[in-house]
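Bench notes, afternoon.
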Amino acid sequence: MATEPMPLDVLSALDAHLTEDEIMVRDTVRRFVRERYLPRAGQLFEDEQFPMDLIPEIAEMGLLGAGLEGYGCAGMSPVQYGLILQELEYGDSGLRSFASVQGSLAMYSIWAYGSEAQKQKYLPKMAKGELIGCFGLTEPDSGSDPGSMTTRARKDGSGWVISGTKMWITNSPLAHLAVVWAKVDDGGAESIRGFIVERGTQGFETPKIHGKMSLRASETGEIVLDECRVGEDAMLPKGEGLKAPLGCLTQARFGIAWGALGAAKACFDSTVAYARTSVQFGVPIASKQLIQEQFAEMGSEIVKGDIMALHFGRMKQKHGKIRPEQVSLCKRNNVRVALEVARTCRGILGGNGILLEYPAIRHMLNLESVYTYEGTHEVHTLVLGKAFTGINAF
């Protein structure tokens, strides 16, 4: 006899460990995603478009720079921030990437390493969605090894001249400003510094990358800097060395660890509903033991991932930060789980699994990128290997 399915949130009893404010924020974003994004998610993916018209609503909910204090930012707790990213990625990884790059990379760079004047100039408008930012670290030949970047900034009079190319930059085609990391000659010693480069600066271009089969509903491009001249006030005064941009990435990876599970839940929920109504050999396929075994495995992994994310979120909330290795542990595990869930759900859906009418193929393709960016699965594996053994295998 069939009964109503038990939602993952009920099975995990996660709400029992959340505050009223955390549940309220999550449910507000949940309604927004289901009402405003999901009805057009497949079309946006097919058309390779980001929903620019939703940016004001996203900003109005306080989702841009949500985890930052002051300057018009919402000042949400780490758990609140994680929950909103999970709901955004339930819609699409591209939607979560937009908020993640704006808040955890572009805005966080300025908030953590910028001058007070830079913070006052940019952060309030970025929180309102009036200014969109991007984060330029990855290069065509410098992905997992950012220290090998070739972008350089040389001192010239009262300013700097920057030359180089950044690749796979989320938000760059629509960004009003970019936080760019470059090597500088600092008194004879080479160092890495961050610079704020505004659109309209001569020599600054952001060509869009076309032909993606993943993150199609996300604006992805390059940053081309050709003898790009900026003032002395464009440099982030507190961000020196590779540790600075890596600190930003740690913030972003924490959010990804939550967000990826949102994609997994979207696949799981829709495929359970499909399996309960799709009839083969006279019965719903959900009644088959092999199908139920797959749902049991997927549900268990998603619940475990939720618990891990909540655990590290509470640690971050209590102590102000967590170790980068702990973020690697959470990101690596939860993205792997999400990708495996998406692939399994695609299989259960059969031929329908390749249609954009169902979210599994869209999330599966998106998660192939999430598996790679913000530190590849293999890099996070080596980070953990070093943490466990004390031996650097890079």
